[in-house]
User: Which sequence fits this backbone?
């Protein structure tokens, strides 16, 4: 009889080890190794032997003889921008994974989607985190009162999959995958084995019954989807719900989409009656702007949508030996790099300055075109000089201080013209009368940062 051996499985990447360690050798994460039920080498070898002889030869046909499958109808969510992100709505038979920080509004958004779909279709909301009374309170607040909207409370992956397989519902919401468990697996809910197997079970049921399923997923403190990476590979659509949980705009973007583009983004704002689509976010972001030093308007691209946002900088002399750099809505490592370029390529002395950067409205910028705007905001705050209020800024900054071209300049310029701006400080490669061309960072500061 072979002695059973315990295995320690990483809850982040799924790698297994024979002994516990504080850090996973595969992915580098700390405190993610959990002990799993012991198994024997004999059992694994026996299963491998059975699997090798139980398969049968596949029947292959010419691809030219295959009839195109009917994609089926889509379920509209009542949010036009969210439908675009999904590729036209929720496709029947698709499995969609929605991830976001706690309290950002995932359950609110899903209840509003349920209310819209339940006007014509049968909908089931399954919660493993909240009671029926809690969900009822949210439904009443959001106006979800249709007889076609049903609720069930369960943490059993087996029961949920069996319910989906019955085909009674067109849309099923599962909130959340980290609370589910299978009776056949002894590990705790949220572990790699439970998440991956429950996900697999639900996906098979959804495909068999042609039911649209939305699964809620938790995120780690770094913002990545919690659980095994295989879950993202299994589902059809992965949506990230981002933004500030306490206010500002919130965005939903597709990280993966088998039925549409991943370049679209939906922008929401939380109101008393739930999430509301922001039709003109540029105007809303700039409505309270005051033209002071350190304030720069930047033209960015969110998905395929041009957007004007305000970047604010505050520069103070430090009281400590090591200056502080803080960024809200902008990558801190990128900020440190741009500060180094400013000090090296211009005459600004920032080594004894605390520098704070804020992107107004809770937006998160991942656009390289924000480089020039951030540099000019820092220079404006440090020198107490203002930029003309009718000018926007965009452009990528290289390590040599050169201003490089960016994507979709025509859409950025069109958005600026629509909101009444007169010029754009942008790379010299753009041939447009609206553009004030700049080739390097120093010339941009000297030429246009001259208003007290």
Assistant:
């Amino acid at each position: 009889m072979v002695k059973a051996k315990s295995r320690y499985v990483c809850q982040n990447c799924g790698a297994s080890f024979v002994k516990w360690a504080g850090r996973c050798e595969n992915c580098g994460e700390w405190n993610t190794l959990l002990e799993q039920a012991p198994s024997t080498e004999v059992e694994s070898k026996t299963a491998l032997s059975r699997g090798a002889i139980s398969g049968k030869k596949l029947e292959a046909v010419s691809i030219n003889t295959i009839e195109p499958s009917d994609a089926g109808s889509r379920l509209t969510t009542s949010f036009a921008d969210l439908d675009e992100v999904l590729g036209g709505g929720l496709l029947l038979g698709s499995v969609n994974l929605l991830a976001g920080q706690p309290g950002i509004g995932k359950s609110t958004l899903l209840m509003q989607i349920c209310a819209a779909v339940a006007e014509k279709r049968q909908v089931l909301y399954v919660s493993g985190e909240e009671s029926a009374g809690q969900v009822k309170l949210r439904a009443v607040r959001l106006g979800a009162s249709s007889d076609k909207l049903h609720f069930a409370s369960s943490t059993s992956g087996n029961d949920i999959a069996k319910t989906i397989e019955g085909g009674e519902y067109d849309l099923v919401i599962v909130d959340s995958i980290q609370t589910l468990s299978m009776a056949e697996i002894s590990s705790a809910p949220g572990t790699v084995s439970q998440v991956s197997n429950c996900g697999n079970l639900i996906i098979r049921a959804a495909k068999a019954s042609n039911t649209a399923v939305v699964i809620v997923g938790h995120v780690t403190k770094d913002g990545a989807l919690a659980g095994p990476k295989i879950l993202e590979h299994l589902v059809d659509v992965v949506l990230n719900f981002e933004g500030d949980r306490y206010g500002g705009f919130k965005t939903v973007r597709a990280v993966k989409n088998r039925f549409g583009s991943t370049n679209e983004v939906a922008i929401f704002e939380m109101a008393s009656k739930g999430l509301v689509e922001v039709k003109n976010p540029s105007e809303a972001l700039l409505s309270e702007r005051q033209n002071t030093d350190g304030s720069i308007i930047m033209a960015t691209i969110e998905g395929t949508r041009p957007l004007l946002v305000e970047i604010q900088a505050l520069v103070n002399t430090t009281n400590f030996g090591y200056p502080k750099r803080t960024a809200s809505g902008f990558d801190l490592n990128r900020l440190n790099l741009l500060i180094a370029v400013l000090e090296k390529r211009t005459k600004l002395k920032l080594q004894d300055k605390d520098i704070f950067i804020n992107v107004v409205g809770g937006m998160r910028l991942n656009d390289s075109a924000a480089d020039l705007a951030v540099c000019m905001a820092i220079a404006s705050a440090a020198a107490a000089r203002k930029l003309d209020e009718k000018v926007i800024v965009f452009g990528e900054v290289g390590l040599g201080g050169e201003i490089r071209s960016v994507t979709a300049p025509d859409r950025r310029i069109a958005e600026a013209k629509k909101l009444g701006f007169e010029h754009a400080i942008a790379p010299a490669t753009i041939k447009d009368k609206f553009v004030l061309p700049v080739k390097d960072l120093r010339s941009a500061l000297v030429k246009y940062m001259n208003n007290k």
